[in-house]
Amino acid sequence: MHHPMTDQELVKAIRSKQPAEVERAVTFLYRYKGYVTSFVRSDTQRDLLLFDQAFCDDLFQEVIVAFLENVWRGMFTLQDNVDVKTYLWKISRLRYFRFRESELRRIQRDSHYFVLTDDNPPEADAAIIDREQERVFKWAMSRLDRDGQEFIRMYHYEKRTHREIGEILGISEVAAKQRYYRYRLQLAELLKAYELPG
Amino acid sequence: MNYPVELLEKIDRYLDGHLSEDECRTIELRMIEDNGFRDLVHAMKQTKVHIEEAELAQLARQVVKRLDFEQVETDKTTVPMRRIGLGNRFWMKTASIAAVVLLVNGAFLTLNTVDLANADISPKVHRLALETTPDGLRPEERTALNNFILANELFVNGDYEAAIPYYKQTANANVSDYLKECTWWNLSHAYLKLGKVEEAKHYFNMYNNLAKPHFQSSFMSQLRFKAQLVWADLFS
Fold first, then answer.
1. For residue A140, which residues of chain B lie inside 8 Å, CB to CB?
2. Which end of chain B is more exposed for a tag (fewer CB within 10 A), N or C?
3. Phi, psi at residue B10, to the nearest 5°?
4. Architecture of the domain defined by B123-235
């Protein structure tokens, strides 16, 4: 059993950016999965759209990551009339209807038997998750050459020092540092094109 | 533009909050005076934040995936039960009541003492199958009946082992069908008390297979005995 967290504690844990705290927050948020993805189960065209359990799992992952990004970006602030659970539901619903619409359009292209419904995606929060920071970052990373990606991965994700990276690649520590910063500035240039808030 | 690595490292330390107050002030002053430098710090900050957040987002996905997996494992070991709905609640309630009734009845049938057959001492009862003198029992009948009464006494005192030979003597004697049936009935009970289920079943079936028994045991007595047989069979 996990200790219950208030919305304030949740947001504080996410903002701390400490892996252990973020993990605790995500573990707590998991209890909202059923609620957050409830409209998928009640969708009468679910079978047609092939929205199965795996789809719900993916959707919930997307919602959690979008929520974390919104908290980090300062786009989610606690208000009296909005709790975290409802906010997650809104993000989920917006993403769901967007995906649903594109799926229905795709099916419509293939068949004349299916007609688009009049579902109106909610307008609230639309701007908040439009940016899709994670997708942009992945794109920027993919624009770096293989060495660049490797440097960023080793330094940030594997938490290696410049000396260790130099030893692995058979170069000096100074050279490893120089190359790392070169790639880092390249990445900064790529991200700048999207004007993401820093 | 090429920046010295030392400067970039310093900016990183500044962003990590690892510089002294004086060093921080120097950097902040330069940011005010030099737009290019300010953009560089901003760009460095941006990449740092994005790398960090991408890492945490990955962590979040892994946590959710792990919890999904744990959920599936839990579901596998849990008996699926539909929730919500008036219909289900009704059936749950009905099933609960039925379970309680079965339990009470089972306990009643299993624990309640079964009535022992008591052969009627009146000679009239024994004249149904045997040619006897009108005013009394034949000596063999008298002996068999005495054995039966003695066996019953031993049974009531809990000495089932000792009661069985007397019952058997009665059963093997040339006595009325009524007395034989009473003896079979009591023999089956004595054997059951000793935990000898097969023998108990044998004598009970001898009685139970009769189309029209002279000794009439009650329906409840038969039911109780059958329940006790089943119970004993389960744990034998």
1. 50
2. N
3. -65, -40
4. Alpha Horseshoe (1.25)
Least confident of A29-33, A194-198, B175-179: A194-198
What ipTM was estimated for this complex? 0.70
Write the burial class of residue A91 (CB in 10 Å: 0-12 exposed, 13-18 middle, 19+ buried). buried
pLDDT of residue B233: 78
Mutation pick from A15, A16, A23, A26 vs chain B, by most beta carbons of B within 10 Å, is A26
pLDDT in tens, B179-236: 888 889 889 989 988 888 888 888 988 888 888 887 877 777 888 888 888 888 777 6
Domain count, chain A: 2
B183: buried, middle or exposed (CB in 10 Å: 19+, 13-18, 0-12)?
A: buried
Cα distances (Å, whole numbers) of residue B11 to A152, B2, B3, B42, B192? 17, 15, 11, 10, 92
Does residue B123 or residue A61 have the better pLDDT? A61
Structure tokens at B51: 């790398």
Predicted confidence (pLDDT) per residue in A37-69, tens digit: 887 777 766 776 777 788 888 889 989 999 998
Supply φ then ψ for residue B223, to 5 degrees. -65, -45
In which element (H, E) is residue A34 found? helix A33-36
What is the spatial distance between Cα B198 and Cα B233, in angstroms, rounded to a whole number?
9
Determine, yes or no, domain membership for A127.
no
Residue A150 and residue A110 in one domain: no
Min Cα distance A113 → chain B (Å) is 34
- Residue B204 dihedral angles phi and psi, to the nearest 5°: -65, -40
A173 and A83 together in one domain: no
Tokens representing B90 are 């009704």
- SS3 state of residue A79: strand
- Distance, in Å, from the CA atom of A72 to the CA atom of A189, rounded to the nearest integer, reads 21
Shortest alpha-carbon distance between residue B50 and chain A (Å) = 7
Among candidates B161, B225, B221, which has minimal Cα distance to B189?
B225
- Do the Cβ atoms of B57 and A65 come within 8 Å? yes
Domain around A180: 133-192
Q: Pick the residue of B46, B65, B82 with the most A CBs within 10 A to test the interface with A by mutation.
A: B46
**Nearest CA among B56, B49, B48, B69 for reference residue A24:** B56
- Our CA-based measurement puts residue B88 at a distance from the nearest CA of chain A, in whole angstroms, of 20
Question: Closest-CA residue in chain B for A134?
Answer: B54
The nearest alpha carbon in chain B to A29 belongs to B64
Q: Which tokens belong to B112?
A: 């309640």
